[in-house]
């Protein structure tokens, strides 16, 4: 069996941190862990590289993480901060001389197809466009290059999104409510990622306090909060967390052992 490594490409909310035009303490912080691009992770499995969500920062994330190949993209949902970097897969098409598989629900694909209509237009193109192999997913587990992904349905306001369980890892971003049936899918985890936008209530995102309660109920060996806004400073925020719960940060690398 090959080992699975997780790299946090982005741990911020939809506007990123620093937030444009803001001079709060977190936005002005010199701590690199307070510099947060939009939320995404990279899964490295042998020679294979799988990204969950292509954010508007995907080009920067790929460059600073040294990503030289891309074998697949899995999408959680179709909001702008999770899909708008899709065009930047083109250099990987060119280098690898092949289409890149993407995995997404039918409803997410409808939005991706509308926004990136030029990608799926069958007419001849005057310039290079992403070359993608579309794989539609449902709530049933699916395989991505030898890794088993188990969808974990979540509520993000009125929108249903997917988190994913991959072995002893679960990545849940952009959620408010986690249905009871989804919590049951999270037993026996080594690492859990949870949305923890801020301290104040939000209509579509989990707060720090709510995610602490979720983490303690799930009981993963380690829980990392992600999708954080500038209300949450890394040093002070992490110091206030219970044992076994941490704040993710851009560039964090976790070795999961055998996948």
Chain-wise SSE layout:
Blueprint: E1 3-10, E2 40-45, E3 48-52, H1 58-65, E4 72-74, H2 80-83, H3 90-96, E5 100-104, H4 106-115, H5 117-120, E6 132-136, E7 142-144, E8 147-156, E9 159-166, E10 169-171, H6 180-183, E11 191-195, H7 208-218, E12 222-226, H8 234-239, E13 245-247, E14 253-258
Parallel strand pairs: 3-4, 4-5, 5-6, 10-11, 11-12, 12-13
Antiparallel strand pairs: 1-2, 1-14, 2-3, 7-8, 8-9, 9-10
Compact description:
This protein is 21% helix and 29% strand. With 259 residues, the protein is of the alpha/beta class. The chain has a single domain, classed as Ribonuclease Z/Hydroxyacylglutathione hydrolase-like (Metallo-beta-lactamase, Chain A, 4-Layer Sandwich), CATH 3.60.15.
Strand percent estimate? 25-35%
N/C terminus separation: 7 Å
User: In one word, what is the shape?
Assistant: globular
Number of helices: 8
Overall mean pLDDT stands at 96
Please identify, by name, the CATH architecture: 4-Layer Sandwich
Count of discrete structural domains: 1
CATH superfamily: Ribonuclease Z/Hydroxyacylglutathione hydrolase-like
As for the CATH topology, it is Metallo-beta-lactamase, Chain A
Number of strands: 14
| Strand ordering within the main sheet | 6-5-4-3-2-1-14
For the biggest sheet, the summary is: 7 strands, mixed
| Class of secondary structure makeup | alpha/beta
Would you identify the regions where 5 or more consecutive residues have pLDDT less than 50? none
Radius of gyration: 18 Å
CATH class, named Alpha Beta
Helical coverage, percent range: 10-25%
Order of helices and strands: EEEHEHHEHHEEEEEHEHEHEE
């Amino acid at each position: 069996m090959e080992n699975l490594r997780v790299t946090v490409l982005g741990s911020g909310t939809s506007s990123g941190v620093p937030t444009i035009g803001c001079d709060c303490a977190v936005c002005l912080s010199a701590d690199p862990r307070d510099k947060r691009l939009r939320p995404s992770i990279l899964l490295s499995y042998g020679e294979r590289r799988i990204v969950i969500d292509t954010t508007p920062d995907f080009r920067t994330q790929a460059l600073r993480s040294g990503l030289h190949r891309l074998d697949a993209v899995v999408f959680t949902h179709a909001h702008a901060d999770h899909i708008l970097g899709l065009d930047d897969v083109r250099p990987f098409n060119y280098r690898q001389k092949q289409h890149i598989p993407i995995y997404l629900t039918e409803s997410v694909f409808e939005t991706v197809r509308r926004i990136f209509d030029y990608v799926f237009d069958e007419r001849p193109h005057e310039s290079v466009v992403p070359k993608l192999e579309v794989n539609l997913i449902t709530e049933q587990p699916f395989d991505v290059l030898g890794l088993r992904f188990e969808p974990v349905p979540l509520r993000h306001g009125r929108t249903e999104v997917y988190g994913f369980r991959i072995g002893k890892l679960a990545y849940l971003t952009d959620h408010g409510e986690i249905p009871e049936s989804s919590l049951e899918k999270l037993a026996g985890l080594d690492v859990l990622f949870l949305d923890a936008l801020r301290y104040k209530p939000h209509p579509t995102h989990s707060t720090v306090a709510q995610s602490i309660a979720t983490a303690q109920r799930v009981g993963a060996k380690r829980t990392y909060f992600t999708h954080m806004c500038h209300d949450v400073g890394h040093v002070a925020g992490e110091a206030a967390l219970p044992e076994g719960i941490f704040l993710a940060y851009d560039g964090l690398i976790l070795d999961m052992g055998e996948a």
